[in-house]
Amino acid sequence: MTAERVCGLSELEQDTPLRVDPGGVAITVIKDGDGVVHAIGDTCTHGEISLSEGFVEGDTVECWAHGSAFSLITGVPQNLPAYEPVPVYVVVIDGDDVLIDPTVIKEV
Q1: pLDDT (tens digit per residue) in 39-93
Q2: In what residue span(s) does the Rieske domain sit (predicted)?
Q3: Whole-angstrom Cα distance, residue 61 to residue 96?
Q4: Rounded to an integer, what is the distance from CA 6 to the centroid of its chain?
Q5: Residues 20, 107: contact at Cβ < 8 Å?
Q6: Which CATH topology does 4-105 take?
């Protein structure tokens, strides 16, 4: 599979998660305070909750249900109750297009 357009850069609000489903894979896309776009697996590894409904603070997104915060850079949980990381995907920006290949997990 190749990277596909998941949204426009102009559609992303700073620190506001957006759920996308390229190739049927649930991914949360976030533009952080520095304007960097991150893509991580959408499902909290503790409680099967959508991280796109969570809260962004700095370089983490926090699951609203149980409070686990995941690094946008590594996918590693920063606190309990989650202890398993979420996948992190490569993001390509082409003009205003945000492209993600859901079959390519970023090496961190």
Answers
A1: 999 999 999 899 999 999 999 999 999 999 999 999 999 999 999 999 999 999 9
A2: 4-100
A3: 24
A4: 12
A5: no
A6: Rieske Iron-sulfur Protein (2.102.10)
